[in-house]
Amino acid sequence: MSRKIAVLASDAPSAQAAQSALVRRYGTVPEDGADVIVALGGDGFMLYTLHRTQGLDVPVYGMNRGTVGFLMNEYSEAGLMERLDEACEEVINPLCMRAESADGKQHNALAINEVSLLRAGPQAAQLKITVDGHVRLEELSCDGALLCTPAGSTAYNYSAHGPILPIGSDVLALTAVAAFRPRRWRGALLPKAATVRFDICEPKKRPVMAVADSTSVADVLWVEIWSEPSIGHRILFDPGHGLEERLLREQFV
After folding, report:
1. Which of 84, 89, 103, 202 is deepest in the core (most CB within 10 A)?
2. Residues contributing to the annotated binding site for NAD(+)
3. Active-site positions?
């Protein structure tokens, strides 16, 4: 089947060279007229592309011209149209973040991977954690904490010793970053429909920043996070190399 593709690339020289080669061979169209968006770069560029094009309802097929490339397929100039015809689609719902900063402003952002709270000073952060209106942890003393989607569970969450989540699971992972007290608290698995609130204790003495993927808010007082089912990011993978397979494979490395 003939497809109209929009070929996008990060600023990396390898991505720019790949874009030139693919455009010469297959052509390109504007994003809003494409059947498929082909993104060339690493995971960061894939997240950037998904965020920027979420209103188009066009699937994104990534090819790795970056480093890790967990969300990307292997790069090859040949057979692109056939690969697109055979690709499997995964739909990911992002997290919504609402936060209030010390200046009284409210901030909203979306996160495909995770929302993280990180200490922004020399002292450990102290966080009160509430889930669906019930206080679950009065005080978590830590370097930070994060809430992630299954798609983001192999990113920062995994580095913080959080669990890898199957892509089809209706759960979110709440993970501490270098927890001091409770010392052995490693986090929790929460229903996808849960709303999580972090209140920052002693925000002047122990400042905290919130980060939703690449959007950061300094000096937050509280942060609320929930999954947004009305937004679906469509990602294409080569058969046998989808997110579910990648998540399983990552656990046996």
Report:
1. 84
2. 43-44, 113-114, 143, 151, 154-159, 178
3. 43
